[in-house]
Amino acid sequence: MLKKENILLVDDDIDILELLQRHLKSMDYHTYKAISVKEALYILKDTEIDLLVTDINMPDIDGLQLVKYVAEHFPNMPKLVVTGFPSVEDASSVIEHGATDYLTKPFTKAELEMAVKKALAHKEAKETFKTPTVNPIPSNGYADMIGTSEAFQKVTEIIDRVKDNRATVLVRGESGTGKELVARAIHYSGKFARAPFIAVNCGAIPENLLEAELFGYTKGAFTGANENRNGFFQAAHKGTIFLDEIGNASLPVQNRLLRVLQEKEVTKIGSQKPEKLDVRVIAATNSDLNELIQKKTFREDLFYRLSVVTVEVPPLRERISDITLLVDKFMQKYGIEYKDRFVRITEDALDVLERYSWPGNIRELENVVQRAVIMCDGKITLEHLPDELKYKIDFPDKGFKTLQEKEREYIQEVLLSVQGNKTKAAEILGINRKTLREKLK
């Protein structure tokens, strides 16, 4: 049986991605989707891709830069460019950058099939492609999550257990540890990956609006409700809803959420008719929910409903061995974004990053590396790291004595060697007798 070709689709328009995927699936191709160039780069590092299909006009990094990158690092991979703004100049540009063909939106299924077959026909060898020019970053297939530490492996073991079922999951960890990445890994690595993933930050939505945003409302339910509207739960039907900062949810929201978990149904504000839902709930918090329960600001029964499975995301200070991998990842990410190339780091700069305690966790590390990439000329050195970081390094305690202690020992040693003769001791020490007397005091 012939292997299905793997085609990577890159477009910031989700509707176009879905259309391309449907068409290509019906042609018996296997597809991967990316809504940005950055996401595409991660897929390219970990996946065998036979054809790139990319849009040109995208935010942050455009498709031409991706085509150029692929031409440099995957020289045998054909590249098909799709755009809604055709011009002779654009056509010439993408061909110069190494594109195999150029397809204009809107296009028919037949036109797409012809362009794909033509692009695949340009392959110079029957091999798959992986980056040969950069150090590979170990991956476990979980999106942006990387690491080899024991603490990190415990997290991935739980993800493996829950990714293919609907168990409610509570993700706990300090701010900046990557709780949303864990939630996305659970969703996108499992059998429900094709269904919606809806992320909601309960701390970012005003309390008086959160209930309506989560559960929806009917026309006339309150002032400003001019139409019937679904909430985030309805949008997540058959998929996953991620409730970040769940500890900030008000008691009325908690009451409704408890009913959703118990009855598997949701009722819009202003309606008496419940709607059945099939939704996996993943909640996250950096708060101590047990403390909130004691304060009567969080329902104990909701806590038990949410924590069927609990994932404890370790702080970065407990993942020191992962720092090098994370730094490499961020250097690659921002090197491509800001410098159009990969960036390196000196050993002493990396040593400082590994000794720092990282109270802001991975988010703080990413910000530091991002700034350093912007400030450097291809190699990150100590001068590109923030001063406050260098001054707060947690150096190991090797039992060093203070300068005053060392001086005292030396003076005592000299005095002992001259049988207590202060004049001779002062001469050896290079100070006068008055200074020696002051030090002896």
Overview features:
441 residues, alpha/beta, Rossmann fold, Helicase, Ruva Protein, domain 3, 4 domains, five-stranded parallel sheet, 19 helices, 14 strands, flat, transcription, AAA_lid_NorR
Outline the structure in words:
The protein has 441 residues and is an alpha/beta fold. It folds into four domains: 6-121, Rossmann fold; 150-312, P-loop containing nucleotide triphosphate hydrolases (Rossmann fold, 3-Layer(aba) Sandwich), CATH 3.40.50.300; 317-390, Helicase, Ruva Protein, domain 3, CATH 1.10.8; 403-440, Arc Repressor Mutant, subunit A, CATH 1.10.10. 44% of the residues lie in helices and 13% in strands. It has helices spanning 14-26, 37-46, 63-73, 88-96, 109-121, 150-162, 179-188, 207-215, 232-235, 251-263, 289-294, 300-306, 323-339, 347-355, 361-375, 387-390, 403-417, 422-429, 433-440; strands spanning 6-10, 30-34, 51-55, 79-83, 101-104, 169-172, 197-201, 240-244, 265-266, 275-276, 280-285, 309-312, 344-345, 379-380. The strands form four sheets. Strands 2-1-3-4-5 form a five-stranded parallel sheet, with helices on both faces. β4 (79-83), α4 and β5 (101-104) form a beta-alpha-beta unit. Residues 124-139 have low confidence and may be disordered. Residues 145-374 form the Sigma-54 factor interaction domain. Residues 6-120 form the Response regulatory domain. InterPro entries: AAA+_ATPase (IPR003593), AAA_lid_NorR (IPR058031), CheY-like_superfamily (IPR011006), Homeodomain-like_sf (IPR009057), HTH_Fis (IPR002197), P-loop_NTPase (IPR027417), Sig_transdc_resp-reg_receiver (IPR001789), Sigma_54_int (IPR002078).
